[in-house]
Specification:
Blueprint: E1 9-13, H1 19-26, E2 34-38, H2 43-52, E3 57-62, H3 63-72, E4 78-84, E5 97-103, E6 114-120, H4 124-137, E7 141-147, H5 151-156, E8 162-167, H6 171-176, E9 178-186, E10 189-194
Parallel strand pairs: 1-2, 1-3, 6-7, 6-8
Antiparallel strand pairs: 3-10, 4-10, 5-8, 5-9
């Protein structure tokens, strides 16, 4: 990955889910690169800030997290430099996938016109764009609850009818009595940097 040699800073994710892909960039730590370790969802914002300070920086994160950032920052100075296919045989869709989940004993056709949904806050805009706005435009009345994690707990405790969150192995959804009604966004790993950098 010769392109990384053009940069002064490499930003790596702290997230456990991205841990196995961290090694792709970690090797450059010993080549004089300064590394910064932060949560994957914050990486685009940090890169953007460092670029504005005139720094040459590159980072690795989940494509879903980068897409969420781009929806909120339409005039972003960032782009995908390289996509790395996420292919994990232990994941039901082979990669992390943002999903609309509902009760196992029902189907998507059973959705009432008024419902409550818990959305993982990390994917608020992505969930809105890929699902909630589309349903609202069709006349559905949706009460949205945003949580930082454990979205299934809101369903288990009867606080919501549905959940929008990332599905990996599907084990936690299964235990909560949920199943995937619809896939909204599948994520690879992306290396991101500035639009105006001369990458090779």
């Amino acid at each position: 990955m010769e392109l990384i040699n053009c940069f002064d800073y490499v930003i790596l994710p702290k997230n456990s889910g991205l841990e196995k892909y961290k090694s792709i960039l970690q090797e450059f730590k010993l080549n004089g690169k300064e590394t910064i370790n932060i949560r994957g969802e914050d990486i685009p914002q940090v890169i953007s800030g460092l670029i504005k300070q005139g720094k040459k920086v590159i980072g690795i994160t989940g494509e879903d997290l980068f897409k969420e950032y781009l929806i909120k920052n339409r005039n972003s100075n960032l782009k995908i430099i390289k996509r790395i296919i996420w292919d994990d045989s232990e994941f039901i869709f082979r990669k992390p996938t943002l999903c609309f989940l509902g009760p196992k004993e029902k189907n998507i056709q059973d959705i009432s016109r008024n419902f409550k949904v818990c959305v993982n806050l990390k994917y608020k805009e992505l969930a809105k764009k890929r699902c909630l706005s589309l349903l609202e435009n069709k006349g559905f009345k949706i009460k949205k609850i945003y949580a930082y994690g454990a979205t299934e707990d809101f369903f288990i405790n009867g606080l919501v009818d549905f959940v929008i969150d990332i599905v990996c192995s599907g084990n936690s959804a299964e235990k909560a009595g949920l199943k995937v009604y619809e896939k909204l966004y599948s994520s690879d790993i992306v290396i991101i940097g500035g639009k105006n950098e001369n990458q090779k």
